[in-house]
Write a structure and sequence with these properties.
InterPro entries: Kinase-like_dom_sf, Prot_kinase_dom, Ser/Thr_kinase_AS, Ser_Thr_kinase
Shape: globular
Distance between the termini: 43 Å
Strand order of the largest sheet: 1-2-3-5-4
Radius of gyration: 21 Å
Organism: Curvularia kusanoi (Cochliobolus kusanoi)
Protein name: Protein kinase domain-containing protein
Strand content: 5-15%
GO molecular function, one term: protein serine/threonine kinase activity
Largest sheet: 5 strands, antiparallel
Oligomer: single chain
Helix content: 25-40%
Structural class: alpha+beta
């Protein structure tokens, strides 16, 4: 076995940390009165941060306001689609649920209010806490926590975890990516994570899994896209997010180089693809068609250089064989070879807890159980 230059157990969180008091999630009933809130920041045209001018005891000081289009539907439900999807799910600590949904002055637009998580999504969090600090690697213990907690999130929305609810649907998120997973400060040394933004979600049906769907963010989708209405596609996307935390890179080749290679080989236009018109832009088409590329994250620096592993100028940090193996399993090219979410929460979950206890003791295991 190769000699590892920086084994995660020796360099990351190897000393058990004292267990801090865990923050409780906000359970106070939320009533939204627009006059009690002011906009402090606009994330984009449809999402903004509101600050309370005064709050009831225990109420939030900040909430995220999201404008959602109300589409006609067979149920004549006046709520926006994302809110209707979330309503199919019971409460769970691995998913961002809406605090409230209210009408706006525009009858075609609804207003959804969500709890605000200051640490942001995992892409923002990684860039701020690690990339900007001399490209520090994300500690392996954090990645294990992410891996298991998001596996729990998938198992929950797919009906494999949680209370049995009459008529509960199996939900596919279909847009799992770093920007759709939020980092949560639970008051301990270690962060937790929540899945959010169900705007591309759908209910799973056996006949639907063979239907092609051009939605979501193609960079994070499996090689079999646009066949993404499957639980295996969700597992790929989870593995791709683990790959991103470990390497800082997506699981696809450089899209600009791929586009140039297509033109060099004589393809006059990307419109030569028979389904080009299914994509809203050339870049989205390229992201969908580009070959998937998965890097090993358990190689030492010399091996990476010898194999010419693509990187951002410095060797990728070396993580454990166990983390690499489970990530690689999720990123199998053959969808049938990927583990199920049951495999992840049971088998990978066992390994994750062993590794977390070894790396950080009891503190690393806080909030590793799903609650409903």
């Amino acid at each position: 076995m190769q000699q590892k230059h920086a084994h995660s157990e020796d360099t990351q969180d190897s000393d058990a940390q004292p267990v801090k008091r865990q923050k409780r999630e906000q359970q106070v009933p939320f009533a939204f009165y627009p006059k009690n809130w002011k906009t402090t920041r606009a994330f984009d045209d449809n999402v903004s941060l509101l600050k309370a001018t005064h709050t009831d005891r225990g109420g939030p000081h900040f909430v995220v306001k999201k404008l959602l289009k109300i589409e006609p539907n067979t149920s004549n439900d006046p709520r926006p689609f994302e809110i209707r999807i979330l309503a199919l799910l019971p409460r769970c600590n691995r998913v961002v649920h809406a605090l409230a949904c209210v009408a706006s002055e525009d009858p075609t637009v609804g207003i959804a209010l969500f709890e605000y998580y200051p640490l942001g999504d995992i892409q923002m969090w990684k860039e701020k806490l690690f990339d900007r600090r001399n490209l520090k690697p994300v500690p392996e213990s954090y990645i294990w926590r992410f891996f298991l907690q998001m596996a729990q999130a998938l198992a929950f929305i797919q009906g494999q975890l949680g209370p049995v609810v009459g008529g509960r649907h199996v939900i596919l998120h279909r847009d799992i990516k770093p920007k759709n997973i939020l980092v949560v400060d639970i008051g301990t040394t270690y962060p937790s994570f929540k899945l959010h933004d169900f705007g591309c979600a759908t209910s799973w049906r056996e006949d639907k899994q063979y239907v092609q769907s051009w939605c979501g963010t193609f960079d994070w989708q499996p090689p079999e896209n646009p066949r993404i209405n499957t639980t295996a596609a969700e597992v790929w996307a989870l593995g791709a997010c683990v790959h991103f935390l470990a390497t800082g890179q997506k699981t696809i080749v450089n899209t600009e180089e791929y586009k140039l290679a297509l033109l060099t080989r004589g393809k006059r236009s990307l419109r030569d693809f028979p389904d080009r018109d299914c994509y809203s832009s050339t870049d989205r088409c390229v992201a969908a068609k580009a070959p998937r590329r998965v890097l090993h994250i358990n190689l030492d620096a010399q091996t990476q250089l010898r194999r010419r592993v693509p990187n951002i100028g410095v060797p990728i940090f070396q993580y454990s064989d166990e983390l690499n193996d489970w990530m690689q399993d999720c990123l199998q090219y053959n969808a049938a070879a990927r583990p199920s979410v049951e495999d992840l929460i049971l088998d990978m979950g066992f390994v994750a807890r062993v590794m977390l206890k070894r790396m950080g003791g009891a503190a690393a295991l806080v909030d590793m159980e799903e609650t409903f």
